[in-house]
Amino acid sequence: MFRTISRESSQRGITGLETAIILIAFVVVASVFAFTVLSTGIFASEKSKETIFAGIQETKSSLEPRGSVVAYKADRGGTDTIYKVSFIVSSAVNGEPVDLTPPYTSDGSGTDPDISSGAEYKAVVSYSDQNQFMSDVPWSIDWLGNDNSDNLLEDGEKAEISVWLLVRDTTELITSSSATSFWTVDTNGASGILSTGTILDKNDKFSLTLSPPDGATLNIERTLPSRLDAIMDLK
């Protein structure tokens, strides 16, 4: 006799325990994946926030010009040129205080500007024209209006920056337009236009860049007129 084996009795299936294990594995993998995605998103978000805050800080610490740029004529051996350029700055958008400790002072005497011995200045002024570039030129500061007698430019304060391209002649007073000596490199490493350089002439274009210790730089570009007067408002 032949024994018939039922097809239904030969079929195999999975138990409830195996099903549970598979489902748990899927849940664990999904959880790990979700955690990785969330962690990456949070990390990227934190980095973006730091970048935004850094950008805001840079903006808060920047300077902005106030008023005109004024150039002062010098008569160097019968040749008209510029020995000093002045401009006014203030803190932009109620930003953080800017350290404007000057490397030089001026008192209206013929020896201006005078180096501030031991001054740790952090803001640097550079100069360039079509013939030369100077990364660190002498500058002094005068505070206008109300100030708290420190070297920090704060909200509501204004400072006049005077950039010295030539030294004023030691035999002349501030009332004279004469500046007959070229600048020499000082102990700070700064210098104006040296004897090997090229002095400014009529219709020349020049650029000044004030770089504070923090924040954006302030760039000023001007072109001299076709006639050099004693004092010129370079609008």
Helix/sheet category: alpha+beta
- Note the beta-strand portion: 25-35%
Number of domains: 2
Helix content: 10-25%
Number of helices: 2
Q: Any low-confidence stretches, pLDDT <50, length ≥5?
A: 1-10
Q: Given the C-alpha coordinates, what overall shape results?
A: elongated
Instruction: Report how far apart the termini are.
Output: 120 Å
Strand order of the largest sheet: 8-10-2-1-13
Q: Spell the H/E element sequence.
A: HHEEEEEEEEEEEEE
| Average predicted confidence as pLDDT | 80
C-alpha-based Rg, rounded: 34 Å
The number of strands is: 13
The biggest sheet, with number of strands, parallel, antiparallel or mixed sense and barrel status, is:
5 strands, antiparallel
The quaternary structure here is single chain
Would you write up a description of this structure?
The strands form four sheets. This protein has a five-stranded antiparallel sheet, with no helix packed on it. It has two helices and 13 strands. With about 240 residues, the protein is α+β, with helices and mostly antiparallel strands. The longest helix has about 45 residues, at about 15-60. Residues about 1-10 have low confidence and may be disordered.
